[in-house]
UniProtKB/TrEMBL annotation, chains A, B:
Keyword Transcription regulation assigned: yes
Protein name in UniProt: GntR family transcriptional regulator
SUPFAM superfamilies in UniProt: Chorismate lyase-like, Winged helix' DNA-binding domain
Recorded GO MF terms: DNA binding; DNA-binding transcription factor activity
Length: 251, 251
DNA sequence: TAGTGGTCTAGACCACAGA
DNA sequence: CTGTGGTCTAGACCACTAG
């Protein structure tokens, strides 16, 4: 029973820590101590409400905090769950998603949501060095780890380089297909990353609330002749990924 | 006037978009259109309340959303402001903070907050390959861009390799000092990145609310003989940084 | 259908920034 | 000092998940 000295306004214990942070600490330490394992479900907000005697809004603030830290996540209208550990992504390695997830003893899965031909917006056209409006393959896929959807990717491929791409099974490694069937080999990779919030369309596909924190990874692969092989936007749940780069000075 | 069809619960316009997202869109487009420039201050929450006729909680939800997207930020108890553009950080380049910020036509600044000797916790000791409890230099610095604090860094350096480090002016490039005065040259860099939430202590130093979204960058620099030259944690405001990596396949 | 999170209201007081 | 954001309360109804 945390000192109920007064009953209005913001009384607060002697410690000066807001209630929602205090609750955050309680839950965080429960996770640290293993009382709540990855994947475990937290008590419902209303349960916490009666347990702690604080308003639901305050409860939710603590939960949002933990979500921002990547410790918990929510399944829409189902509940709050403890986040599994993140996978490590290394842009200097050429291994694709399926490969590095398996290497980390996790189970990857890919689902192709759509494959369509779209007119290249000018930003995309620039990258492919083609005229705006040129048709492009646009593949949308959802990828999961241990059954939990962790990213949505939208890949643009030039149909001139990969005609009939749609005929292939795209639920595996796209890089593999481009290499095997079209002789397209990347020799250079450009990667951009930045924290973002997941916008409505992506959020829906991941089954999360719009505005959930995320990480945007933009990959551009170039062939030997400088042609763009793949132009890829990956929208990750922020708690699912960690980036690792190891670099040597070349003498 | 967005259709006041009913007066209780959540009526919502025909579009099915929650009010807080609608407000988010309004503000976001005002920023896009340049009606609000980087650094500009938004109307106060209570002003928006009377302007839009919605409850303050709803207003704040929209603002949090925009903050998570990196479009706006807050100065504690002062107001909400439009975020300046992020700087690009390239871990494959050896240029330090001062250098790459200037290259991007921005004004960098460094402030040393503390320099002390601490006993290495076991995790740190492992990295330096020394016994736990071995004394280490620990430098805490705050770095700013155009006058806005964007990151806190905590650097650990082995005092055996850099005796008397505290005597130097640490408000410039530490890498430079280690190289010039101690002959410590990094030949390998290991970088880890992950989205996080800024914890209380860091948040205070940055003057932001605890839980504000951030990006943690951990750098480990190795000398030719494998010794660890610098072990550095950088806590960035998430809206201030973008990471860029460009990689070639070596034939 | 019961229970969950999602959205929203309309208040209140507190701590601090800034003039 | 005034005004700002920060924290908190105690309700309400909605939209969805899951049994």
């Amino acid at each position: 029973m945390p000192s109920a000295i007064s009953l209005l306004g913001v009384p607060r214990g002697e410690d000066d820590r807001p209630q929602y942070l205090a609750l955050r600490d309680q839950i965080a330490s429960a996770i640290d101590l293993g009382k709540l394992s990855p994947g475990a479900r937290l008590p419902s907000e209303r349960q916490l409400q009666t347990d702690t005697g604080t308003a639901r809004g305050t409860i939710r603030e603590a939960l949002f905090q933990l979500e921002a830290e990547g410790l918990i996540y929510r399944r829409d209208r189902s509940g709050w769950y403890v986040s599994p550990p993140p996978v490590t992504y290394d842009p200097t390695r050429w291994a694709g998603f399926m490969t590095y997830v398996v290497e980390q003893q996790r189970v990857p899965a890919t689902e192709t949501l759509s494959i369509e031909s779209v007119a290249a917006p000018s930003a995309v056209a620039d990258i492919f060095r083609r005229a705006p409006g040129t048709p492009m393959h646009c593949v949308t896929r959802r990828r999961s780890i241990d059954g939990r959807a962790v990213l949505i990717e939208r890949i643009m491929v030039d149909p001139v380089l990969a005609p009939g791409l749609a005929e292939h099974d795209l639920n595996g490694s796209l890089t593999q297909i481009l290499s095997t069937h079209y002789g397209l080999q990347a020799v250079r990779n450009r990667v951009d990353m930045r924290p973002c919030a997941l916008t409505t369309s992506v959020a829906e596909m991941l089954g999360v609330k719009p505005g959930t924190p995320g990480l945007l990874v933009v990959r551009t692969s170039f062939a030997e002749n400088g042609a763009v092989v793949e132009y890829d936007h990956e929208y990750w749940r922020h708690d699912a990924i960690r980036v690792h780069v190891d670099l040597q000075v070349r003498p």
